[in-house]
Design brief:
The chain has one helix at about 10-65; strands spanning about 85-90, 90-100, 115-120, 125-130, 140-150, 150-160, 165, 180-185, 190-200. The chain is of the alpha+beta class. The strands form 2 sheets. Strands 1-2-3-4-5 form a 5-stranded antiparallel β-sheet, with helices on one face. Strands 7-6-8-9 form a 4-stranded antiparallel β-sheet, with helices on one face. A hairpin with a 2-residue loop joins strand 3 and strand 4. The termini are far apart.
Length: about 200
Amino acid sequence: MRGRRQKGFTLVELLIAVGIMALLGTVGAMLLNSSLENQAAIDTRQQGLERVALALTVFRRDVEQITQRIPRDAQGDKMAANLLAEQVGEDSELEFVHGGRRILPGRGLGSTLERVRYVREEKELIRYSAAVADPSGNTPWQRQVLLRDVSAFVVELYDGNRWSTFWPPSTQVSASQPRSLRMTVSTGPWPDIQLNVLLPELP
């Protein structure tokens, strides 16, 4: 009589199949984990780029609406120019008055002018703003963090002949406004991001 043919799998075959399935499961889990980590890194970088784009938009909007008005200091004395810039250490400080500030309904009378100041503090790009053109010693300033992890913030101004990190330049102390402005900021993985702004022409 012929021996009956075995049905099913032997123990060795089952062990091999289980081992292969376990290996495939491990590889699949590793691929899924790697994909999730890559997606998280992409999302983080995308959010960082959106913050940079927003900061550049705010800065450009402010600079493009600069007024010809010479601002006054806390003592009421006129400043040297309608835009003041200096380099403190390796970073710049920029201050000016711009128009276009929104007056919200129900807030009473207010000015459309706003004094703004840009500085780097503790690796953050800060925008200070006062709701008047000539803030006094007790005028409240609003502090807004535009960017974090900032390693450099440099503003250069073009007078028609050369670039300078100071305004007014020592060679043109009576100059009220430069022709253009170039801002360079380094933040996180993005070094030396440049923004060039052509300033409004003087009347």
